[in-house]
Amino acid sequence: MIVKSLRIQNFRNYAFQELNLPAGLIAFTGDNGQGKTNLLEALCVLATTKSPLVERDKELLRWNERSARIFAEIELSAGRGDVRRLDYSWRVEGNSIAKEMKAGGVPQSAVAQWLGQLQVVSFFPHDLVLITGEPEERRRFLNLEIGKTKPAYFQDVARYRKSLQQRNALLKHLIEARFNKQAPDDTHGTLGEWNKQIISYGARILFQ
Fold it and tell me: What pLDDT does 44 receive?
């Protein structure tokens, strides 16, 4: 998977920039503040719809702009001529951000459909936390990278977390009912069902 061309509009310090990228190793050089990191960040945003550097999408917009776009042509297999065209744009609508994703001109309605269209592994200075930080940071990184190659993985993780939250909320309810000497609802079957879902989704996550 090779990025053949990249076009960005109203992204960070770029009003418009188009690059045709040669095959092989590429190094961006230049003075500080010229936008080298912004080009790499644009690829990460195109791949995942999220920036690895900031939380809010509005921070990615060029000053005084309300919309941005990233477009790229991806060669799927070197020398075969199979090209995938990815088009990702977002705009400010009131207090929210509206996003649009197209692969080969076909709209993608969910991020799960989008992930994996472009596979990128990024490493920025703050990613040293993967070595020095808590296990949760490493788990988050692995979840993201696995999800890029196996979009269904994200769905399993989301369902696992939801089942875990529901099971824990039910356990809290049972404990409070016992503490207050109240007769708890007939929740034994429900508790067992949540446990089954946790085991099922957890096994699928571990298998991947």
Answer: 94
